[in-house]
Amino acid sequence: MKPPAARGASAEGHVDRLLSAASVMERGRFAWHQLHPPIRGGVRAKSGLPDRAAYHNGQAFMFEVKEKNGTSIEVGLLTGENTDCGGGIRPGQTTKMDLMTDAGVRCFVVAVLIVAAKAAKRRKDGTVSDPGYPGATIARIIPWATWRALMQAAEDQRQALARWQIESGRLMVRNGHTCALPPKPTVDASISAADLAEMGSPCRTAAELLAAIRGC
User: Fold this and answer.
1) How many Cα atoms sit within 13 Å of 82 on the Cβ side?
2) Residue 141 bridge partners (DSSP)
3) Could you read off the pLDDT of 37-72 as tens digits, one per residue?
4) Which of 62, 70, 172, 199 is deepest in the core (most CB within 10 A)?
5) Burial degree of 113 (CB within 10 A; 0-12, 13-18, 19+)
6) 11 φ/ψ angles, rounded to the nearest 5 degrees
7) How many C-beta neighbours within 10 Å does residue 93 have?
8) CA distances from 166 to 127, 147, 154 (A)
């Protein structure tokens, strides 16, 4: 897959090409369309619906497309304000995909991560201090249940951090600011390039997309 030129719309265009090719390959047994949120007051609203819907042999599928430039991609938020969540899944989208999953629709996240090349660094003596890495575009199709589990883990970590902050504040009030504190929990709300490359299934061709939904 050639790295998309711009965030968001280019990854959606890639998915559109795969869906169109799948429709041709399946000879009428596969149909799809875009899900556009309504325009209200001249501004496109956030409906929470995934980006694309497809139908194959009587089964409905939904695809939310997420794209990021960098070395990791955010998973999003289960609860809270319906913001962009750093490019991850918004709470409103979580609600809609949960409802559709309960109704028997199979939902996926198509994650496209564009990793820019990092040049190797050499010391004055010619030895390598940092090997760097080549550029790559990672495109994976991931079942919603798998992605949601990562969102839930991050939410649990946020709650643990909030509890730690409260407890640490109480300890410092009682024992002074230099008192020993319990280990501070960390929040991991993103997927690294290395981990993403192993998640779900590849989504570079129409055949790979069809294989993923057939095997779900």
Assistant:
1) 10
2) 110, 201
3) 655 666 656 667 889 999 998 899 999 999 999 999
4) 62
5) buried
6) -65, -40
7) 24
8) 48, 29, 19
